[in-house]
């Protein structure tokens, strides 16, 4: 199996859609990397759908997003919440609309600054960084710009989480096509099953996707996350640790 020879220290995690399993997959990657002795952190720079905590204790309760909390729990180093999830909007809707409702505007420049800062902080702590997107690859930031524009500007390698259900072939090919059109590297892909009901002809679909990612992007299936899988240590390793820059655990602050 030929994986890219390059090793990465910062990778963007996208999905074929919202609820594709990006957070679930990112948690599993972080825990698995920790298990294999690599210090990697995950962030969720932009989240929509939040709840207030410490309402009874503070005049200014903090708004938190469940994806960001899951990633914080998986991370081997603890960051202040605002570092991990600087943009956290209340309504569980398209983030740029949620932002508008709070009198905020999103832009590629804003996201570029946030991602650059997260990358620098991770580097200072000698940790690798997985950045979870929101929604699918072309998540709008405003009427003109998308989160994909930011990933292109920062030239980040991408992991694609594919939700294995009918329609995923089209979604995966569209996502892959646009990532490659922008000249970005696909570091690998992950098959995810949020639904307890396995799709018909799962194996044929998986084989199609394996061939498509390999032929078009020289990218391999990194993890196959069957519905309900829990044991990170036992997740089948497909040689994917080759991709991740080895950052020995315990080097962080
Ligand atoms: N392999 C799996 N087994 C069981 N549950 C899963 C699996 N993958 C995802 N899920 C569940 O499916 C739901 C959607 O997954 P997840 O939150 O990871 O999606 P997402 O792509 O991160 O969505 P968003 O766009 O909101 O960030 C969650 O409740 C998650 O726990
Ligand atoms: C609220 C939800 N869980 C996601 N975080 C945001 C999904 C945005 C999707 C935008 C769209 O492509 O229509
Ligand atoms: Mg998520």
From TrEMBL:
Gene3D superfamilies: P-loop containing nucleotide triphosphate hydrolases
Lineage, uppermost ranks: Bacteria, Pseudomonadati, Pseudomonadota, Gammaproteobacteria, Alteromonadales
Binding annotation for Mg(2+): 23, 67, 132
Highest taxon, organism lineage: Bacteria
Amino-acid positions noted as binding substrate in the UniProt annotation, renumbered to this chain: 48
Subcellular location: Cytoplasm
Quaternary structure, from the entry: Homodimer.
Associated pathway: Cofactor biosynthesis; biotin biosynthesis; biotin from 7,8-diaminononanoate: step 1/2
Name under which the protein is recorded: ATP-dependent dethiobiotin synthetase BioD
Organism: Pseudidiomarina taiwanensis
Top enzyme class: ligase
Biological role: Catalyzes a mechanistically unusual reaction, the ATP-dependent insertion of CO2 between the N7 and N8 nitrogen atoms of 7,8-diaminopelargonic acid (DAPA, also called 7,8-diammoniononanoate) to form a ureido ring.
